[in-house]
Amino acid sequence: MSVQRATFTRPILAVTMVAISTFAAFAQKAPVPTRVRGTIESLEGDTMLVKSRSGEDVKLHIASDLRVAGITKISLADIKVGSFVGATTVPGPDGGNNAVEVHVFPESMRGTGEGSRPWDLKPDSSMTNATVAESVVGNDGHTLLVKYKDGEKKVFVSDMTPVVTYVPGDKTDLKAGAKVIAFMKQLPDGSFETNRVSVGRDGLTPPM
Fold first, then answer.
1. Rounded Cα gap, residues 148 and 65, in angstroms
2. Measured between alpha carbons, how far is 130 from 111 in angstroms, rounded to an integer?
3. Alpha carbon distance 11, 24 (integer Å)
4. Model's pTM, two decimal places?
5. Which SS3 state, helix, strand or coil, does residue 8 take?
6. How many Å apart are CA 148 and CA 94, to the nearest integer?
7. Which of 46, 108, 116, 191 is most buried, judging by how many CB atoms fall within 10 Å of its CB?
8. Residues of the signal sequence (predicted)?
9. Cross-strand pairs, 69
């Protein structure tokens, strides 16, 4: 009986080990990035090479339905009650939400990505796209109460926080040296494609 049991057990152990190894391989696989922030190195035809902020070279195929938006600097005073904004925030020492950047959407983009979600700009950062309901001016910045369909959040925006907005752009804005955020997807062959790029104007680095 013991010999039969051992013979029967070996295949089960082998299958179990394969299953564990396969699961571990999936668990260790890095997530596919959804955006790259960096500087355009070159643009040849429908291929754009971007040097990421972390130093990697990322080759992107430009999709036929490419959308380009320019990013330009504005002032903190341009954030008004009723503005639809996007705010990248990190937890402050007092437990509040400190803005790393704020971008004001033009009226034509109102409602874009409304809500609050984790963001990959900094550790523990989040992105909140919402309408400014209140703006309280302090000695060193503004405290905004922003409301979205599922909730609300108070965001502190210091006088030093970058504030930007979107302006129309096109493929001619994609030049060597331009600072960009390219949203991308992985194709079946493992290469990457982008159909949406935000590009800083006048040397600006998109802060979001």
1. 29
2. 8
3. 20
4. 0.80
5. helix
6. 23
7. 116
8. 1-27
9. 168, 198
| CATH number of the domain located at residue range(s) 35-71+167-200 in this protein | 2.40.50.320
Pair 56, 95: CB distance under 8 Å:
no
Encoding tokens for residue 129? 């796209």
Report d(CA 61, CA 144) in Å as an integer.
39
Determine how many CB atoms are found less than 10 A away from the CB of residue 80. 10
Long-range contacts from 135-139, C-beta under 8 angstroms, 24+ separation: 135/79, 135/80, 135/81
Question: Which two three-digit tokens encode residue 76?
Answer: 């903190």
Which position has the token pair 């394969």?
A: 18
- Domain extents for the chain? 1-30, 35-71+167-200, 73-165
pLDDT digits (tens, 9 = 90+) for 11-64: 443 433 433 443 343 334 445 668 999 999 999 999 999 999 999 999 999 999
What residues pair up with 50 in beta bridges, in sequence order? Answer: 40, 58
Residue pointed to by tokens 């998109």: 206
Per-residue b/e over 116-149, b at no fewer than 16 CB within 10 Å? beebebeeebbbbbbbbeebeeeeebbbbbbebe
Kindly state the helix (H) or strand (E) to which residue 110 belongs, with its residue range.
Answer: none
